[in-house]
Please model this.
Amino acid sequence: MTMNRLWEDDMRFLKSTPVLAGFALAAGFSLAPAMAQDIKIGAVLSVTGPASFLGDPEEKTLKMYVEEINAKGGIKGRKLQLITYDDGGDANKARTFATRLVEEDKVVAMVGGSTTGTTMAMGPVFEDAQIPFISLAGAVVIIEPLKKFVFKTPHTDRMACEKIFEDMKKRGLTKIGMISGTDGFGKSMRDECVKVNARFGIEILAEESYGPRDTDMTPQLTNLKAKAGIQAVVNPGFGQGPAIVTRNFRQLGMTMPLYQSHGVASKQFIELAGEAANGVRLPAAALLVADKLPASDPQKPVAQAYAKKFQDATRQPVSTFGGHAYDGLMILAGAIERGGANPKAIRDEIEKTKGFMGTAGIFTMSPTDHMGLDLTAFKMLEIKAGDWAIAE
Amino acid sequence: MLAQFLQFTMSGLTVGAVYAIVGLGFTIIYNASGVLNFAQGEFVMIGGMVTVFAVAAGVPLPLAILLAIAVAAIVGVALHRLAIEPAKDASPVVLIIITIGGALVIRGIAQIVFDKQLHKLPGFSGDTPVNFMGASILPQALWVLGGSALIVTLVTLFFAKTMIGKAVLATAANRLAAQLVGVNTSVILAISFALSATIGAIAGILVTPITFTNYEVGTMLALKGFAALVLGGLGSPAGAILGGMVLGLCESLSAGYLSSTYKDAFAFLVMIAVLLVMPSGLLGKPSAERV
Amino acid sequence: MARLINNRWAELALVTGLIVLAGLLLPSNYYFRVGALVLISAIAAVGLNLLLGFAGQVSLGHAGFVGIGAYAVALLPTHWGVPTLASIFLGAAFSGVLALAIGRPILRLKGHFLAVATLGLGILVAMVLTNEARITGGPDGMPVPRLELLGTRIRAPEAWYWIAGGTLIISIVFAQNLLNSSTGRALRALHDSEVAARAAGINVARVKGIVFSISAVYASISGSLLALLNGHITPDTASFLNSIELVTMVVLGGMGSLVGSLVGAAVLVILPQALTVFHEYEHLLLGSFIIAIMIFLRDGIVPTLRKALLERKAPEDRV
Model:
């Protein structure tokens, strides 16, 4: 009934203002009759724009696995219907699409939000509508302070800093330089690192930064090289920046240890940086080294299966970013399986997720922890001879 | 000290060379047609992306490069024929908006034909840096600088020595007069779009081993190329080159000596300061409005 | 009919009618949000149109002023306890003064210099918002405290639709008055021939500076409303791409037509929403639409349609 009324309004709308015809058309499409039993879930992702290397694998992963779930008969006999929108990395657009998912598409839950910026812009929409939202972005601010309907699946940037500093401490490195991207990821992780370094007895002697589209970081690295006493360099950032930093680092003949972040956790980084990537260390989920995990590791089958499926379907190297989408979708599917397709019930069930084995580790959520991962799921990796190796 | 300065300078010149070529591409089209083509950066993208995908498909590098240049030239001509020519009497701002639309279309197609990943090419002469008075320089940077110098020389010769080049200049100076002496101005404009696309594509190919490429590198380059153009003096090819180099140097020197966070801001401040002192740009001729 | 479309009261009635009619028909919060975004963008576009369509100057950094307005209502209340309404005015005043300060020296020069200076300014604003993370929240942005009026916090998109609509109408009235003032007459003289205007004793730089400053105020107010509608703001607001989008709105709708700015804003806000069904073909189609509109409706949507209408209704009037 409401749908009919909407249509009528659309038609009147269409007649009154021809310019808005496209708008009504869009509504018409988005209201296209869904099978009555389908469970609608939404995803607003940064499929294009500066964060497309996050959003692109995320979208592919979600589509792949929704298809798989449906091929197996859906959840309790009901199929999933995935509605995706591309926000281009723009927070304002993301919020519009979030509103559209809630108001027009009437989704029961959302898995998406590629960046922290888009996630923070969309959060209130889902909070107000009381619809669960599983974010795929890293920053700790998403779940701290806790929001009732907002969850996230990736490790936080604070965890990445801690992991790196822990490793440095073990190797006896205490004086470091930092070069960070001014993109959301790099900036947020840099801020977290600066908060926790003292706890590990690590001193940051010099800091440099670069823009997300910069193509040459030799001036910044020359300055770090010239600074006396630096024993290691950390590079929080994602996208092309870290690969260029790594190559410039070797170009300048810098020999101290270089740490990258989980923002480069994809084979693509090694391809781009080439030879220069050897010796770089970074904290990342075990997904990247699925084949190298001991057979006894309970995570091995999950990580291996996802990596294989993703690479076979897309012919692109597997990344932890797509893995976060897998984790989010599976946690959601589990919650629907247990509690039905009502948004509030889904929320309650997501919070009760216990011991779920995902690509990022074991998730155990609680009313006070809406991520549910601890540091044990996070591995310190080193790139050796163009491949990942476990460094601990 | 000197080694550091050299390192910063080389960095600035390499980055600046790309801005310069994009600026030169702007100038060629602007001089011939009065259009500021904001799809200029997309030619650089096409050059890099087509080469990458052709090489990945097994095409030998030299052939892949020719292919990429051909594709860019065809896109350039298509842009002119399908978008600019049908609107040729429109105001300059309208034409700018059309080129922005064109850039969206080219990017939109690239996103479907290629992918959204970052890609690289191997350095033409390997990736082992050369030491020059304490500064370490990638051989590819020399390729970029040498290639840019060659482009500039060839473009200059083209305008000075060839019949077509002179016809382009004649069209630029006075379209009606050129038509009267038998120049087919529509063909001439198509040629300048093709030429501009060609040099953009070459710049894209040369620089991809250093900077990587993906389907949307063009946006930033169009912006920097436009800045180079205005800094050097609108309509002056030599000015566009100089403007690009100055812009690149400003960025790397401020990143090295002042603050890496605000280096782009310093570059723009220098630019505005120059314009206040020299309103026609570094090498531009002062203009008078026709009443 | 011809006279009707040219009449400023008709223009105002048309805009008001459209806003009210659409407001009564819109079925849900999503539609109200998109509608509010159209109106908010239109405010900035109307301001930019004064600059582009009447003073003949291009600004490639207008999103910078949008960013200033947006962060004014986020920063001032959060850090210094300034009331939201006062923050809107402070942001607008700051934008206006900044534009005047930049515009005065630059606008004495003839040519594309304002375009370059504003390009630099826009990038600078985006850069400060991105890098001064301690107060702006950095690239991930910051929350915006809700506007409280008469003790209630305004957050429904519907409320913002009506507020934005009211503000747009006031903006258009103000723009019309400006165009009918002595400054407006100077502008028109300027538009015809700058040299002639200068010869007639018009201080060209001063007039252009004033218009630039006013257009900056429009952009700033539009930014404040956007931030308040969203409740969370990121530095993307001030990005180069958004500046380009604003220019495109003005040119698409029609330079020199205030109604055109609303139409241009509507096209660029609504079209991407309609194109989502085409997924990866979205950008390709958006670009094609822009090219097609510019080729077939060369003077912009509204002026071209108006001309076509005039020719059909009153062929005898044609000169």
Q: What stands out?
A: Chain B touches chain C through 45 residues (CB under 8 Å). The longest strand of chain B covers residues 130-132. DSSP finds eleven helices and two strands in chain B.
